Amino acid sequence: MRASRLTCSCIVAGALLVAPSSLSAQTPDAQALRQEIEQLRKEFDAIQKQYGDRLTALESKLSATEPAPQPAAPAPQTPAPAPQPGEQPQTAPQTTAQVPPGAEGAGGPTGALPVYGGAASSKVFNPDIAVIGDFLGATGRNTVNPQPALQMHESEASFQAIVDPYARADFFLSFGEEGVDLEEGFITFPAIPGGLLVRVGKMRAAFGKVNSLHNHVLPWTDRPIVINNLVGGEEGISDAGISVARLIPNPWFFLEATGQVFRGDSGDLFHSSQRGDLSYVAHLRGYHDLTENTNIDLGASYSRGHNASGIVDDVDLGGFTTQLYGVDATLRWRPLQRSIYRSFLGRSELFWSRREQPVSQQNAFGYYVSGDYQFARRWFAGARYDRSAHADDEALHDSGQSLMVTYWPSEFSQVRGQYRRTKYAVGDLANEFLFQFQFSIGAHGAHAF
Amino acid sequence: MHSEVVRGNRLSVEELHMTVMKSAACVVAIAISLIASTAHAQGKLNVITTTEDLASIAREVGGDRVTVESISRGYQDPHFVEAKPSFILKLQKADVLVTVGKELEIGWLPPLIQQSRNAKVQVGAGGYLDASAQARILDIPQGQITRAMGDVHPQGNPHYWLDPDNGKAVAKEIADKLSQLRPNDRAYFEQRLNDFVTRLSDAEKRWATMMAPYKGTKVVTYHRSFPNFAERFGLDVIGYVEPRPGIPPTPQHTLDLISEMKRQNVPLVLVEPYFDLKTPNSIGRATGAEVLVMPPSVGGVKEVTDYFKLFDYDINLLIGALKKVSTASH
User: Fold this and answer.
1) Which chain A residues are Cβ-neighbours of B110 within 8 angstroms?
2) Of A190, A196, A289, which is closest to B84 when you measure between CB atoms?
3) For residue A318, what is the DSSP state?
4) Does the pTM exceed 0.90?
């Protein structure tokens, strides 16, 4: 496909170049045109020389500063020389670029790479790009899990576009204080027969509700304790894998079954020591409109993968696994005619963790219940209760209560305050006030419901 | 993208990859043949529209050869529809999806299409129709656009259906699309299109006559929902309750608007049914202007059940209010 496209563009470009020059031979002011071309050519050569000289100067400077010079990088490909006057160009300028140094030999391509479009070409095919900033502040006291007073917690850059008639791609890069992470990057095939929705890439697993949500769509500044204790923390179950989802036809309600296979590495939850240590996620989601204003959303999830507790000297001697079970329920209310002013979302998720580890298996349970009420076009108030055991010690329980107020200056920014009281199984009671600024620029694709 | 060097231990993965690619190719071929074959099946075409206005026009054109359903309701803000899973089920079974376009549905339609598992209604596929292609679009922003302008639509104002001529353009688009999918019914759809256009032209003359005495009437609207309506029926929109599109009223803007309305003696404030009446009512009290809840869409109020009744209702509402204003001033 690429080759044929290249050939086509060469032919078209060649034809365009040939046509005017053969035509000009018959026009009276051909001489003038030719002179002009000659003039332009000279100017171009002069510029080229100037840049070449500058480059050489820079290179010599660089090699002077470096004690052991690296092998010289291939000189940038210069454009094909301009045709001599009277000479008819037979082909369009070469549309190739040199393979970058180091890319050869590692299974990468060799030789020249085709280049599509130049700087002047249209940008209409660029993906939708957006950046969402998440700034967090914390006051009060927390000796167990202190977060910095002020932090630029995350900047999420998203790139989203349709790939071809069969697929679309979504990338979410998360720039945190410690570095850059590919939060998600996947291709979606939305129209595969059999009612399947297939995703391939790195993605947040369809385990429960909150696990699949990005930070900026959460109604809180943090994630519930149970998520941190049992479901992999802030990153959650997020891994490279394949996801297949199918709608299950029935006359009553929306029912979707999702099956996912991952490599088996998800934060401190799953750890894969060998290729066979895959992790799996299964999710069943039912949705029903009770009225046009109210709906209910129920889910059940299961996940299994290897944990790191049996690893001794980089060898997984124990081969221990963690199994997670989850159920979630969401009730939403939003009166259609006043949809921009009033809404309510009540949600609860319950998780059971069955973790094998050297001494004994730990069966930990945790949950949260939360409610979020929109009382004006730009204002929301919410509350959340948390309780969860520790995954590696079912006897230790953390619990917490939070109150939230959120204000949206517009759809593209929000300010949130959260009072949080956390009672840790080990450590002092924490009373904190957390605040958050979130702001979005660019075109961020709409989120799934 | 494909490596030419295949190392021994990667071979099985490569083979698997090839098998997957081959089966994917088969699957695509089957999909294409399925789409081709359904086009010849002679059941009713299942048309899903994003708004009730498009649904009404699709019913006019499609007659008894189609079933039509709208995702949003006319009394709902079409910018902020929720992408509920129940809509995925509707889209899954659709033969045609008709959208308003101009980014009106950008906040909620893409995830629905993506999850619909329906190749026919994917953007650019045969069953996807952007009804705005031939419509007259106003308010296309010039120069640099930023979000400091509020929720601007870079491709122009999407509320274009409130001009009957644009209704005709939309009907033509839908008729063409239906004929394309059901070539045997082309004559039927064309006859219904012509009938619709004739009836709409007659009604337009009647509406124009009714509105003629009020040409140039100054109005304020809540959101920029009525530019095409105002242009067609000679209203002069001098301001908006929203300081910028999508930004809720601010006290300073409201005060400025009140003084401007007093200066220009504006008799009407038009409010879409989904906006809060508190600010418009206080503007009405301060200026003496009449506040009208004017539906911009079919289904915006109960009586407005089709595209004709939308104009009947809105024009009668305007004239009723303007008559009251003129008798009060005499």
Assistant:
1) 445-446
2) A289
3) S
4) no
